[in-house]
Amino acid sequence: MAAVRFVAIGDSFTEGVGDELPDGNARGWADLVAQGWANSAGEPIEYANLAIRGKLIGPIVEQQLEPALALHPTHLSFNGGGNDMLRPRTSIDHVADLFTHVLRRCDEEGVKLIALSGANPSGQLPMRRLIQRRGDELSAAVAARLASRPDVITAWNWPDRELSTPGYWSADRLHMNPRGHHRVAARVLAAVGQRPPAGWWSLPELSDAGPKGGAYYRAHVLPWIKRRLTHTSSGDGRSAKYGEWVEITPQ
C-alpha cells in the first residue's frame, strides 16, 4: 500500500473544469497535485477524486465526505462554497460550519485535512463587487475557523491577486484555465511539503479565445440563469471521475 493516499472532494474547482484534456476529460489542480506529489516524493501514491461540478457545499459534505473517508486516506482535500456564494440567501456561517464538520470527521478518522479556498473570479464577472465581498467574507470565516489548528494544511487561493487576473481564467470567466489550475497545484504541493515544478506558478499566457459582449452572456450567463430557474445543475447525472483508488507513479 502506498504511503500517501490522497482523496479530493468538492465541486468543479476540484473536478478540474476549465483544464480539459484533448479527449474532453477535465484534469485540474488535484490531478496535477497527485502526479506532482508522486514525482517529488519519488514513489507511487494512491489518488481518488470524488468532486462533481455544480455541487453546493451541503451536498458535497453529505454525498462525498463519508465515501471519501471510507477509502481510508492519509490526506483529504476539501473545498466548497463557491456555488453557494453566488446565491444571495447563502449563510456564510453555515458554509464555515461545514468546514468545521469536515475537520472534525478527519480528526476522528486520523486523516490529515488539506483545506483550500477557491480562486477569485470576480474581476471578470458580472456583479463583481457582490462576488468580491461575499468571497472575502467566506474566505475570512473559514480561515478564522481553522486559525487555532496549525496542523491543518491550508492552501488559500482567494487572496492570490495574481491568480485573480484574466490570464488564469477560461472562456466562461468562472473556472480557471490550465494556467490557473497549475498555479493552485503548485500552492498545494508546497503546502504538503513537496517541491512543485517552478514553472507551474506562472505558465505562459494562453490565447484569449473567449466570447465578448452579448456573445459571452448568451454562451455562459444565460445557461447559468436557466439552471437556477429550473433547479438543475451542471453536475446532474455525473459520477466521480476517480471514485476508487488509482495508482499514480513518478514520471
Automatic annotation (TrEMBL):
Protein origin, superkingdom: Bacteria
InterPro entries cross-referenced by the UniProt entry: GDSL_Rv0518-like, SGNH_hydro, SGNH_hydro_sf
Alphabetically ordered keywords of this record: Hydrolase
Keyword Hydrolase: yes
Keyword DNA-binding: no
Residue ranges occupied by any SGNH hydrolase-type esterase domain in the UniProt entry: 8-182
GO molecular function: hydrolase activity
Annotated transmembrane regions: none
Pfam families the record matches: Lipase_GDSL_2 (PF13472)
Protein name from the UniProt record: SGNH/GDSL hydrolase family protein
Organism of origin: Microbacterium horticulturae
